[in-house]
Amino acid sequence: MTMESSENTLAPCLQVKQLKKLYGSEVIVDSLSFDVYPGELFALLGPNGAGKTTTLKMIAGLEHPSSGEIWVSGYAQHQNALEVKKRLAYLPDDPLLYPKLTPLEYLEFMAGLWGMKADVAWKEAEELLRYLDLWTMRDRYTETLSRGMQQKLAFAAGLIHRPELLMLDEPLTGLDAHAAHDVKQLLAARAKEDGMAVVFTTHILDMAERWADRLALLHKGHLIALGKFEDLKLKRAEYESMTLEQFFLECTARGDS
Amino acid sequence: MIRLLRMFPPGKTLWLVGWQLLLIWRNLAHHRWARSWIFLSVFALSQYMAFSMVKYWMRFPNVFIWSALAGLMLVVAGACFSRTIQTLLRYLSQPNMLKQYFLAPLSHKVLGRSSVLNIALYSTLYMGFFYMPLAIALIFYGQPAGFAFFIWLPSFALLFTLLGLAVVVGSFKLFGASQARRFFQFLGSGASVLLLSLAVIPVLKPTFVQLAWQVIEQSIVSEGWWKQTGWLQSMMRLALGDRVSLGVLVSIVTLFFIMTDCYWGEQLFVMQQQLLGKMKSHNRALLKRFNENNIQVLFLKEWRMLRRDPRISSEILLDAAQVLPLILVGVYNTKNLEMISLLCLGWVVLGSLMASRLCWLSMSVESGAPWYTMAPYVRWTLRDSKWGVIVTPFVLVTVILALITAAVAGLKVACSFLGIATTTIVLSSRIQLWMTLPLASVQGFYQRLPRSPLAEIISIFFIYGSTFLYVLTLIWRVNWAWWGVIPLGILVGAAYFFRISLAPSSKS
């Protein structure tokens, strides 16, 4: 069941083509194809073990696909990995922090990794930390920050080099309502202003329903639904009155498209 | 090397090879499998050298100390005995026991957490781990009492560590957090200065160390003092505030507290550093701007981590703890020029060991490792850069030490050991090249901290092994009275720990 966007005339920011991942003989992701466009908020949904995180890791370059291709802003990952890496950021569900660095030192390190100019990076870091309410914590070791603050700092680290594609694995884990709101606002603003595409996984289906422009539903490594939720609901009469949660349960129970 | 082989005939070397294989196996359970082989081959070399050296110097008979400490070990053995039974019963009663528990560490599946019991177990293991080779050498070469020196010190370290823990907990309870923090800030600074001095002085002022060692030797180690005063009398002298006794004891204990028993020391270091971190967080000089140079930024991050994370520094000191005492004892306790020349080579090995450990830690202790893989660099570029930055100063130190060695022992010996040192550094550092997994999965250091069941069982085996060797030596060397003390020690220890383990709060 796929309903690809027909409205988007921009070139895709991310193209996943026939992606496949095997661990031994076990198929984790199978023949996965989808596009994500600039400025789009794209939800990757599925039950545990569906292959969502593996997919994100393959796009981020942390896992090698068994077959298939990944293109980011026109660059193929298998041909021009450096250009791809420059354009993306990936935040796993566990914040990737060094416990003995302060938030500012951490952002300095991240900016250094992406080769940013010091003054530009400093400005970005200050802006992000102030926006995320971390500026007063800038001289503390990250290990002394709460889980929510650590998560926000990881966001800042991912955003500091202004990626074209941001991938988030369970982005709201550990965030309170205010922090979650701030983060969503920030990401939405970046998507609107910079055209940054956001691909995220989540088990909070309410959030996906309200926040995502489009979604992909994975089940046992297979893509079983792709498109805008409103469009997907039109595919069957019984879907029309469903929430995303009901739709999710129905589709994954059926296990096929 | 030929000289070393002559010191250690092949028949007996076989025992040591077996010991090293067991060490490797133990480490397989603790570390990621690939790294350990190379690292432990270096360790094996240092152990081998240590045995050879120890044979020469240990000639200070004091059977009483040796016996007393062996008795102490028995109590610990008793404790471990009960733990072993519990552990084995727990594992054996599980379905799929073999797959789940014995193969689990190889698939990085670790169970359990460091509890107080496990820390005690690990520390005991650590002591056995170091001193069992000495016990083997003791049996083979028949100079039991001399080894008391090596057992006496860590035993005190253990006692003082327990005392330290009690002080930490007690001071928090009694004086409140803020006062206790001040105290530990002071203590931590003092310990750091002492550690630094101890590390620097031997290089800068060998004469001073020689003099200090003579004091130690005359006060504690040499036959004269013990013959005149005996163990109890010396303890009384200490209690009465005998300046030399007190100074020597405190120095030695602090040294070993910090360097030898890294795991315990680490716990306190971590505690102290966390306190300091919290205290200083309001006073730390703020970054006013970012550094422009990316290499500088990367280097700064390494330096900050090294400076601030006690787990890294204590791991690096682990090697110093293995080799440094042996070198120091030898250098200042023998007039045999050939021996001194061999000991100088120990400095070279020490430098290379520390370099390799630092490289390994710096590259594998990466809680943020995926950033490296995702960063826009050719894979390995960053890692290679890090390796270069870290290893260069150590290579320089090693070269300098090799030059010193050349001056003392001749160019041929220096070159051979420089080769060994360089190979050590290179192989230990580049081990990650052989791991095809991305850095994201290389977190062996942190994986080592939670105990795996297999590691636990092997640890227990080692504790038993070392303890029984002590006991055997004891029986062989001392007298029949210990036949009664041995089972008593085991019973007391077992009873104590059974009582603890049966208590509801002692779940580990």
What does this entry look like structurally?
The complex is a heterodimer of chains A (257) and B (508). With 257 residues, chain A is of the alpha/beta class. Chain A is 37% helix and 24% strand. In chain A, the strands form two sheets. A seven-stranded mixed β-sheet of chain A has the order 1-11-10-4-9-8-7, sandwiched between helices. A four-stranded antiparallel β-sheet of chain A has the order 3-2-5-6. In chain A, strand 5 and strand 6 form a beta hairpin. In chain A, helix 3 packs parallel to helix 5. The longest helix of chain A is centred in the C-terminal third of the chain and has 18 residues. Chain A starts with a strand and ends with a helix. In chain B, helix 3 packs parallel to helix 13, helix 7 packs across helix 11 and helix 8 packs across helix 9. With 508 residues, chain B is mostly helical. Chain B has 20 helices and no strands. The relative contact order of chain B is 0.15. Chains A and B meet through helix 2, strand 7, helix 3 and helix 4 of A and helix 11, helix 12 and helix 15 of B.
Topology:
The complex is a heterodimer of chains A (257) and B (508).
Chain A: E1 2-3, E2 14-23, E3 26-36, E4 41-45, H1 52-60, E5 67-72, E6 75-76, H2 81-86, E7 88-91, H3 103-113, H4 118-131, H5 147-159, E8 165-169, H6 177-194, E9 197-201, H7 205-211, E10 214-219, E11 222-227, H8 229-233, H9 244-254
Parallel strand pairs in A: 1-11, 4-9, 4-10, 7-8, 8-9
Antiparallel strand pairs in A: 2-3, 2-5, 5-6, 10-11
Chain B: H1 2-7, H2 10-30, H3 33-57, H4 63-92, H5 97-102, H6 116-141, H7 148-204, H8 206-221, H9 223-239, H10 243-259, H11 262-280, H12 294-308, H13 310-331, H14 337-364, H15 369-374, H16 381-409, H17 411-430, H18 444-448, H19 453-477, H20 482-502
Helix pairs in contact in B: 2-3, 2-6, 2-19, 3-6, 3-13, 3-14, 4-7, 4-19, 4-20, 6-7, 6-19, 7-8, 7-10, 7-11, 8-9, 11-13, 13-14, 14-16, 14-17, 16-17
